[in-house]
Amino acid sequence: MGLKNRLKPTKKKLIFFVGFLFTGILIFVFGKKEDRTVQNSPVPADSVQVKQHLLALTQTPKFRNHKNIDQLNAVADYIHQTFGMYSDSVGFQKYKVEGNEYKNIICSFGTENSKRIVIGAHYDVCGDQQGADDNATGVTALLELARMLQNQKLQYRVDLVAYTLEEPPYFRTENMGSYVHAKYLKDNNIDVYGMASVEMIGYFKDEKGSQDFPISVLSWIYGNKGDFITLVKKFSGAGPFVGNFIDHFKESNQIKAETFPAPKFVGGVDYSDHLNYWKFDFPALMITDTSFFRNKNYHKTTDTLETLDIKRMTKVIDAIFLSIIHLK
């Protein structure tokens, strides 16, 4: 997850706090809380496969940052090879930055359908660290989803996209892999139903006080335990895809989930690849464990595999899969 000038100016902090509070109050007043039976997945996510992918992504000779291009390419090849085990439609989207070549990897299912959805996650890290939660968890979700989507009858084409260069120094620039991909879709008038960014889905805590907020009053609404996944969307005009995806995600009842409908002026809600789809007016949302509001290993060398809750991460993948196959 990229980050730039996080809540730095006082005015920005105030707007950030007010936006979160206002949104939280609306959720508290109007949000529906219903008990639902856990849905059975026709192809459940496999925790053994999940751990194997996490090991492959984090235990590398060098760190997978923008400077270590050979390592990024090796990770890209691993993703491409894994995708190729489950789909006949896999390829690289190559582009150059400062004379160096970088790659997105795209894997498609349901290619007989013209309208598509994009599920994306970035495979690069910030600096010299493993980046287990940020964002080996998101990429692992894509790899496991590829296995689960094989031979599924889909209503839409599904593109799983692993991006490069999400992290600084390229965050919020046109060099982000997700910007390159979103621009390609726009320039070619491709019919996109919507996009979901899978950004840090492996860190959970049940202890009281383990979940932070910009202001403490929000814990009255969301609770102060880091035991949920968050679905971040635009406050208004999110589009049918976003609403349908969130409904199916929650109805799967795989894991505790909270919706955060964020006003546009609130900082922090676009700290991932979905921001570039918003730029090109595609409906998009982010699936996240709330990043630095919970995981204090964020962008540190302590963001390691040992800190992850693989069991709950696997349930997040199940919920994403069920959302995809049930979309109408």
From TrEMBL:
Which UniProt key words apply to this protein? Membrane, Transmembrane, Transmembrane helix
SUPFAM superfamilies in the record, alphabetically? Zn-dependent exopeptidases
| GO MF assignments | metalloexopeptidase activity
Q: Does the keyword Transmembrane helix apply?
A: yes
Tell me the Gene Ontology biological-process terms attached to this UniProt entry: proteolysis
Report the transmembrane regions from the record: 14-31
**Boundaries of each Peptidase M28 domain copy?**
104-320
The protein in question is named: Peptidase family M28
